[in-house]
Amino acid sequence: MKLSQDQVNSYNRDGYLAVPGVFNESELEDLHRATEKYVEQSRDLSEHTDVFDLDFGAGHSRETPRLRRIKSPHLLDPVYDAAMRKPELLDVIESLIGPNIRLHHTKLNMKAPGGGQQVEWHTDWGFYPATNDDILEIGVAFDDMEIENGCLMVIPGSHKGPAYDHHEDGMFVGAVSESDFSMEDAVPITMKAGSVSVHHVRELHGSAPNVSNRPRRLLLMGYAAVDSFPLTGYGDWDDFNSQIVRGEQTNEPRLEKVPARVAQPKPDGGSIFEIQDTMKKSHYADAKGT
Ligand SMILES: O=C(O)CCC(=O)C(=O)O
């Protein structure tokens, strides 16, 4: 499933892309079934765990489980692992960052009907700058993604911008300030279930609360060119290389002239939701009542 030259040009120009029909009905059914199982398991939880992040703002309880995120789902269930390694998906990625690909992370973000939480505007680069920016994020749509259920939104072309500051009063808050972008330039990535979105690591993106009566479940998976080394270090060498999902390892990081800013100082632990909750004012002011 290699991308056409037009698709590659569009990604390079705008910093994002939607690719329809990457996952078929039967794969989606497997993903839905696995996800429902974990949502059921979250009923018994009254606090976050290493794997489950709960949406208390949307009223998580035993009666109405509101699982906001499954962390590293590919380590939890073979269904997600298979999705992460799907050869057609890796073909799409190869078209954009080359044949040597390392998994960076996976997470399953879910917005429950009637209030699932927004994600404030940020770039992934603000969280993990590297020696070059051949890094992208795939979003596998488990449900149709519309504005109403809080689809991903991007600022086209923002991946060519500066290293946006994600700090407030000197502390990392995981989101940019409103002076860095205009919501008027935001483009929603609407797509059918089974499609995937791709956004560049430096692309400004965010998403509104789910105000519909449908769920919004998006499996997000970050991939990097193997020669893109994190500025914060690569940890254990064997573990680092075990994350390669296609191609060859290298001990020669590619150094490009890219603007960077490290995510320090930052609060201890916590998911993006918890970090962004430390912001004084939400970009979705009505959603936070500020
Ligand atoms: O779930 C979303 O809408 C976006 C999530 C995101 O950008 C993130 O978790 O870094």
N- to C-terminal distance: 45 Å
Global mean pLDDT: 95
**Low-pLDDT regions:** none
Principal-axes geometry comes out as globular
Strand content: 15-25%
User: What's the gyration radius in Å?
Assistant: 18 Å
CATH architecture verdict: Sandwich
Explain the overall architecture.
It is built from 7 helices and 14 strands. Strand 8 (167-168) and strand 9 form a beta hairpin. 39% of the residues are buried. By secondary structure, it is an alpha+beta fold. It has one domain: q2cbj1_9rhob like domain (Jelly Rolls). The strands form 3 sheets. Strands 1, 2, 3, 4, 6, 11, 13 and 14 form an 8-stranded antiparallel sheet that branches. Strands 5-12-7-10 form a 4-stranded antiparallel sheet. A two-stranded antiparallel sheet has the order 8-9. The radius of gyration is 18 Å and the shape is globular. The mean pLDDT is 95. The structure holds 2-oxoglutaric acid. 2-oxoglutaric acid binds next to strand 12 and strand 13.
What is this structure, in a nutshell?
The chain is α+β, with helices and mostly antiparallel strands.
Please outline the helices and strands:
Elements: H1 5-14, E1 16-19, H2 25-42, E2 52-54, E3 67-71, H3 78-85, H4 87-97, E4 101-111, E5 119-122, E6 135-141, E7 152-154, E8 167-168, E9 171-172, E10 187-188, E11 196-200, E12 205-207, E13 216-225, H5 237-242, E14 244-246, H6 272-276, H7 285-288
Antiparallel strand pairs: 1-11, 2-3, 3-4, 4-13, 4-14, 5-12, 6-11, 6-13, 7-10, 7-12, 8-9
The structure holds 2-oxoglutaric acid.
